[in-house]
């Protein structure tokens, strides 16, 4: 069952770009050259300052500089050889490489959101350019994909493709979502202990506030902390809301309180954009962090105590936070994949059942 309001007259941005592979290809080529030049100025040449942590910026700059070479080559090859299967494989490969350079972009956004700034402006710019590259390279890959429907052979746009009705994800995806949400329970318990005046990992709420001031936290962050509201706890709550919006039907249609938008279809990019940014940041950050903490717990790597009285206290807090990031990152990736497949336009011939055609069942396809 479909709704006429779920289609547009001109089609989505992605569909319009799919009809113009050379235009999106040129945009991707311009981005690749610009990103490579900026990375070259940040790291190998040293023309731009690296920020507080120059070593990390140099490593990222070298990575982006090296990756920009095959990226430019892949885009040029795509422009000269449109429609070849090898083109799509190359573009998706360099798209994945670009996604790695966007690592920790979410941390930069959080720092800017609460007025704390970023550790390194050049590195933050490289993270943002990496995300732009993911969008452009994915659009270029899709532009060079086959436009014919495998069922009816006709090319479908937003005007001709059917949109599935709002649906829930499978039980397996729900299990991942609950696991990702419950992973924040120890984190919430730790924050609640501090807010209520208790002591956790050898420090109290006053120690947390003092440490935030020393680290240059913004007035907004300090005000929220003084009210007993932790900024990261708020972001965790928003993350759980996003997670369940991806797996429940209400995440696909605007609710009644949105007034003019009530009942209209939520654009697919609206929940998928923050979900993909979260996956690209939290999943590798959590997985790599858990690996580091594991080695530190085993005594293989050193532990920096930071604001905590002992190394064991530091490891305890690190285990709680990084495990939550890793589990939530996996759950977010599974939920985003489910949302992607459940909401994508399909051939109208696959909708309905019986005399109207074969049943369309995308709910548990992923």
Automatic annotation (TrEMBL):
The chain crosses the membrane at residues 28-48, 60-79, 91-118, 124-141, 173-190, 231-251, 272-295, 315-335. The keyword Transmembrane applies. Keywords: Membrane, Transmembrane, Transmembrane helix. It comes from the Bacteria. This is Uncharacterized protein. It comes from Streptomyces hesseae.
């Amino acid at each position: 069952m479909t709704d006429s309001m779920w289609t547009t007259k001109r089609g989505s941005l992605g569909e319009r770009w799919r009809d113009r592979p050379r235009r999106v290809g040129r945009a991707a080529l311009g981005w690749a050259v610009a990103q490579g030049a900026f990375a070259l100025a940040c790291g190998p040449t040293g023309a731009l300052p690296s920020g507080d942590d120059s070593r990390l910026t140099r490593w990222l700059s070298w990575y982006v500089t090296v990756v920009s070479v095959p990226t430019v080559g892949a885009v040029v090859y795509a422009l000269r050889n449109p429609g070849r299967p090898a083109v799509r494989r190359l573009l998706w490969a360099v798209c994945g490489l670009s996604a790695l350079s966007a690592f920790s972009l979410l941390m930069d956004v959080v720092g800017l959101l609460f007025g704390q700034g970023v550790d390194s402006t050049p590195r933050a710019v490289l993270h943002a350019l990496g995300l732009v590259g993911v969008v452009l390279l994915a659009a270029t890959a899709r532009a060079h994909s086959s436009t014919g429907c495998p069922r009816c052979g006709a090319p479908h746009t937003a005007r001709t493709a059917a949109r599935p009705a709002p649906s829930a994800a499978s039980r397996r995806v729900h299990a991942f979502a609950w696991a990702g949400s419950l992973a924040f329970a120890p984190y919430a318990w730790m924050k609640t202990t501090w807010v209520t005046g208790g002591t956790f990992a050898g420090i109290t709420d006053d120690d947390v506030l003092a440490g935030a001031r020393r680290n240059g936290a913004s007035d907004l962050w300090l005000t929220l902390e003084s009210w007993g509201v932790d900024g990261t706890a708020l972001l965790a709550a928003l993350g759980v809301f996003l997670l369940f919006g991806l797996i429940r039907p209400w995440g696909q249609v605007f609710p009644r309180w949105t007034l003019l938008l009530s009942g209209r279809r939520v654009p697919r990019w609206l929940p998928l954009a923050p979900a993909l940014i979260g996956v690209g940041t939290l999943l590798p950050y959590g997985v790599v962090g858990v690996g580091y903490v594991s080695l530190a717990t085993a005594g293989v790597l050193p532990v920096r105590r930071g604001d905590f009285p002992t190394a064991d206290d530091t490891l305890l807090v690190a285990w709680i936070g990084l495990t939550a990031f890793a589990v939530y990152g996996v759950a977010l990736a599974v939920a985003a994949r489910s949302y992607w497949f459940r909401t994508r336009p399909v051939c109208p011939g696959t909708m309905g059942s019986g005399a109207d055609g074969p049943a369309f069942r995308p709910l548990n396809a992923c």
